[in-house]
């Protein structure tokens, strides 16, 4: 437990950003002592273009909207998010480095008052890019690795050499003083593999956080319950977490409460303005072109509120109901579809 706390402080604190530290302290006090629920972070998917062909990708299952968010739309939503308490902004894809003028998105965030992160597959992450992003206030580089064995990672990601390039990106970021988080999706097939064991060792040696994402039946894995961890898998995983303090989940990142952070503390916004409380549950809570972020989040919080389990990765009842309504290629579903699901209690 002490190791987890140290890791949270190491990655959550940033003494070079005193304004951010003050805002973080205020939010923690609001959550812990006043019972308020300030928003913590926003993940923006700025593009669904990608240079990989991953087994679990959902980029092509999200329908294109009538409008694509422009820079002025991002600027407005960032302001609205800050009014709700947000102090962590992350940009992802697809692959962000395929987005024209991506640095312009980073410049929209006041990096002195906020934590700023970028998620990338690392293929195009050069020394020059790392240096430029650091100068714009990026403090965390989240890079995807799905195995510590290069051949396994390359097969999963659909491109030979992707492991080598991702590791090079990690090394560039670390060498220049950036904080690195490795994202890794785990399924029953990968959890006990030699590749995952090698990834644990890799993260330990690099002294970086390994953010584990439970596989979900969405995207290319839609309707596939075989990718979902079972009870015995989760017990095995929890033992890994107990003995490896650098292994985390999104459920560990909240202000004061352990559990699902969807809607309460974090939201995901597609390039078309749809707000998804969870990036793997493809039911929109609303669209920023039509409503304010505050209105959309309030609607979502009727359903999501610090569930003890990951709804889409652990709750069997929720998964069954979600699969039943998401068989057609019309995602994300509209907000009213949330009412068709009754299994919002993730204890099941």
- Strand share of the residues? 5-15%
Unreliable stretches (pLDDT < 50, length at least 5) are none
Shape: globular
Please tally the helical runs, counting DSSP H or I stretches of 4 or more residues. Answer: 13
Mean pLDDT across every amino acid position: 92
Compressed to H and E, one letter per element, the order equals HHEHEHEHEHHEHHEHEEEHHH
Structural class: alpha/beta
Q: What composes the largest sheet?
A: 9 strands, mixed
Write the layout of secondary structure elements.
Layout: H1 2-12, H2 18-33, E1 41-45, H3 71-83, E2 88-92, H4 103-106, E3 115-120, H5 127-135, E4 140-144, H6 150-157, H7 162-175, E5 179-186, H8 188-191, H9 194-206, E6 209-214, H10 231-243, E7 247-248, E8 266-269, E9 275-276, H11 293-300, H12 311-314, H13 316-325
Parallel strand pairs: 1-2, 1-8, 2-3, 3-4, 4-5, 5-6, 6-7
Antiparallel strand pairs: 8-9
Provide an overview of this structure.
With 348 residues, this protein is of the alpha/beta class. Helix content is 36%, strand content 12%. The chain contains 13 helices and nine strands. It has helices at residues 2-12, 18-33, 71-83, 103-106, 127-135, 150-157, 162-175, 188-191, 194-206, 231-243, 293-300, 311-314, 316-325, and strands spanning 41-45, 88-92, 115-120, 140-144, 179-186, 209-214, 247-248, 266-269, 275-276. The protein has a nine-stranded mixed sheet with strand order 7-6-5-4-3-2-1-8-9, with helices on both faces. The longest helix is centred in the first third of the chain and has 16 residues, at 18-33. The model has no long low-confidence stretch (mean pLDDT 92).
């Amino acid at each position: 437990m002490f190791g987890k706390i140290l890791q949270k402080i190491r990655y959550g604190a940033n003494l070079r950003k005193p304004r951010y530290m003050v805002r973080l302290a205020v939010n923690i006090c609001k959550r812990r002592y006043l019972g308020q629920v300030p928003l913590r972070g926003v993940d923006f998917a700025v593009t669904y273009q990608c240079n990989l062909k991953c087994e679990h990708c959902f980029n092509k299952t999200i329908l294109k909207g009538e409008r694509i968010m422009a820079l002025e739309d991002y600027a407005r939503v960032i302001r609205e998010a800050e009014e709700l308490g947000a102090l962590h902004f992350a940009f992802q894809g697809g692959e962000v480095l395929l987005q024209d003028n991506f640095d312009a998105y980073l410049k929209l965030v006041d990096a002195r008052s906020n934590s700023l992160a970028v998620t990338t597959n690392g293929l195009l992450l050069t020394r020059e890019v790392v240096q430029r992003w650091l100068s714009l206030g990026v403090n965390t580089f989240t890079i995807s690795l799905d195995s510590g064995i290069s051949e396994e990672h390359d097969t999963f990601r659909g491109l030979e050499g992707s492991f080598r390039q991702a590791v090079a990106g990690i090394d560039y970021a670390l060498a220049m003083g950036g904080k690195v988080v490795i994202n890794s999706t785990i399924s029953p097939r990968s959890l006990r593999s030699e590749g995952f064991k090698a990834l644990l060792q890799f993260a330990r040696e690099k002294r970086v956080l390994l953010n584990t994402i439970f596989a979900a039946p969405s995207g290319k894995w839609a309707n596939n319950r075989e990718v979902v961890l079972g009870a015995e898998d989760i017990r095995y995983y929890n033992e890994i977490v107990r003995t490896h303090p650098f292994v985390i989940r999104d459920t560990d990142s909240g202000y004061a409460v352990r559990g699902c952070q969807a809607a309460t503390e974090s939201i995901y916004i597609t390039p078309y303005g749809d707000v998804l409380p969870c990036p793997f549950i493809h039911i929109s809570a609303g669209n920023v072109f039509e409503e304010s972020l505050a209105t959309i989040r309030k609607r979502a919080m009727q359903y999501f509120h610090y569930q003890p389990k990951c709804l889409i990765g652990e709750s069997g009842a929720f998964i069954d109901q979600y699969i039943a309504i998401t068989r057609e290629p019309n995602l994300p579903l509209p907000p009213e579809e949330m009412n068709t699901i009754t299994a919002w209690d993730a204890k099941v």
